[in-house]
Amino acid sequence: MPTIKDIAKIAGVSHGTVSNVLNGRGNVSVKKIKLVELAAQKLGYQFNLSAKVLKEGYTKTISVVLPNITSEQYNCLYDGLFNDLSSHGYELSLYITHDSKERELQLIQKIAAKRDCAIVTVSCLVDAKPYYQTIKTPKDSIIFVYRKPFLAEQFISLDFERAGQDIAVGIMAKNYRNIGLFTNSTSNAPSCGLKNGLQAAFNQSQYNVVLNHVESMPSESNYTLAFSFFSDLSTKYDAIITSDIERANYIKNANFLGSNVKCPTIYTLTNDVFFYSDNCYKYHMNYGMLSQQIINIITGKEVNYIDNKGFLFFTNERSKRQQAVCNKMINFLILPSPTTEAVRKLLPHFKKETGIDVNLIVKPFDDIYRQFNELEQYPEIDVVRIDMASLPWFAKSLLMPLTELNLNLDELLSHYSTQIIERFSYINDIAYAMPFDPSIQVLFYRQDLFSDPLIKRQYFEKYRENLVVPTDFAQFSQISKFFNQRFNRDSPVRFGSSVTLGNSEIIASEFLLRYYANGGRLIDKTCVGLDKEIAQSTLNEFKSFITIANNLDAAWWQTSVEQFEQGDLAMLIVYMNLFSYISNKNILPLINCASVPGNHPLFGGGSLGMSRYSKKTDEVSQFFNWIFSKEISEQIALLGGSITRDDILQNQKIINSYPWIKRIEENYSRGIRENQLESGQSINLRKVESIIGEYIGLWLNDGGSSKSTINKINRALKHTILP
């Protein structure tokens, strides 16, 4: 095997230089990095990680020990750990025991040689001694999951006893008496907890049931055991409860192939994603979120209680209200967006539940805004999607207060942050709308480029600064220039970033983001205007950035998102809800996000309200109760819509599809969009932004002084305060 000495000889550099390159140290020139990498490639050299471990005494590796990877709860656990820990720079090694004690003991010996920083295990051992005696990792970094062996110090699981209690309530509501239970051995904590919860709920309600519990041991076939529920022809079950979806499917097969009676109702534990299945009630456990708590333990963060999600779409029967409102329709005026398309896909479910049709009237932003100015002429419009910037201006004249609808408003709003409620619902202490697709500006960047040693060294040699995610716009512009191939032939992407200039309001958004970062404000108590000094310097900075960015003559940001998706940009500042367009593309694993430079992002997105000219209060109430329910909100998010309910952050599939969601929530507290005076009086912010963008656009095209442009903007803004 080639050595570091061999590489140094071929590369023509010192032994120490090779060592620095292979260990990722940044004090080596770009030229020497390339020489070392080329020499190592020629020799087929592979860096000896074990040698590094012996030298340093630790690694950022984690061993995960599972009974199998096919069971839903273990698959979700590993998937969550892999996705999140990989983003933190950890490497995971997976070991499968097949619930064999002998195999697990062998694996413990193997893991001990690695010196992991943490061990995550679903153990089949009786006690934890073999782990503590063999592995030198600190005890509090050996995390036992689901099953708690004797003497285990660090243990984490979910509330399976609560699941049993909740399922028992459902059983009693149906008056089922003859119950089957199909689980792992009750020596395992989850199965024991599930059974105890069932029995506790039945006993507390003095509800008599016949409970036949079939427990499976590791050596037994779950599929074969499923047939035992139908082997006695004299026993007919009202319902069968299973501890996982795999067993539920086995029950269905066993009934289909081994019984002439109708399959009993099935209650099963499953993960947090809803899939419809006839005559099967799924109780959703937050398997995926368990990995989040394990990561908190590993990274030293606070560990919180994880609540069960419970039943989604609990009843399979259509609503009894369907016949009463048959052949009714509501008209819904809305922008084209990923959220709109997600809602469109789900509307048949609303029709099945209520008998009410929903007609989506999808129009561009400008057309909707014009229609708002004369909405009294469109009494057929029942529901409107209104941009949050325009909500204060139009709320009182266009929208019915939500208290006039048949809604549990406190409960519906309880799932949103205070910042969202204040900006997307209430105007002068009156709730006029429900938050629909709130959004905020975020900096997305190519994490693979920012962590590449060669690129980092190139940047350092050029600017004598480390390449880091920019926190101010001076850094942002410098990095944008570095990644622009017009200024740097070696850039792996065509442009550092882009700027969209095809619409006056988008130009205003690009400018105001920088203006706020520099400390500017639009509103000063009773006045609307730009701070002359700050605005002038911001305008000059903005013009300088335009000379190094990819200029897009587009009327919306989607073009820039498409460029980022195609790998043409290193960075992109865009509203979070627009980024879901690329959620399923191959570039997703390479992307990370951060707060915008200056930490003052603009709010975007909008709310849903009922037109005050509509007469369909009952139908709109049903629609709002449906679209803002936990179940439908989750489905909208899964289909690519922008939803900010707090319980959406408890869905592992959504987090995996949109990993930036977890980091965006904290940015809402810093969001800004000035659309009211200090007195609470509304301003026509759309007109304000249109004026700002229009004059800046003229200045960019025709030239002139930045000072003169700001003066023109401020003179025009004086006339925009009052309705």
Which helices and strands occur, and which strands form pairs?
Elements: H1 4-11, H2 15-22, H3 30-43, H4 49-56, E1 61-66, H5 72-87, E2 91-96, H6 101-112, E3 118-121, H7 129-134, E4 142-145, E5 155-156, H8 160-173, E6 178-184, H9 189-204, E7 210-216, H10 222-226, E8 239-242, H11 245-258, E9 265-270, E10 280-284, H12 287-299, E11 310-311, E12 328-334, H13 338-354, E13 356-362, H14 365-372, E14 383-387, H15 391-398, E15 399-400, H16 409-413, H17 418-424, E16 426-427, E17 430-431, E18 434-435, E19 439-446, H18 447-450, H19 453-463, H20 473-482, E20 498-500, H21 504-517, E21 523-524, E22 527-528, H22 532-546, E23 550-552, H23 558-565, E24 571-575, E25 591-594, E26 603-604, E27 606-611, H24 617-627, H25 630-638, H26 652-657, H27 661-664, H28 685-702, H29 706-717
Parallel strand pairs: 1-2, 1-3, 3-4, 4-5, 6-7, 6-8, 8-9, 9-10, 12-13, 12-14, 20-23
Antiparallel strand pairs: 10-11, 14-27, 15-27, 16-17, 18-27, 19-24, 19-25, 19-26, 21-22
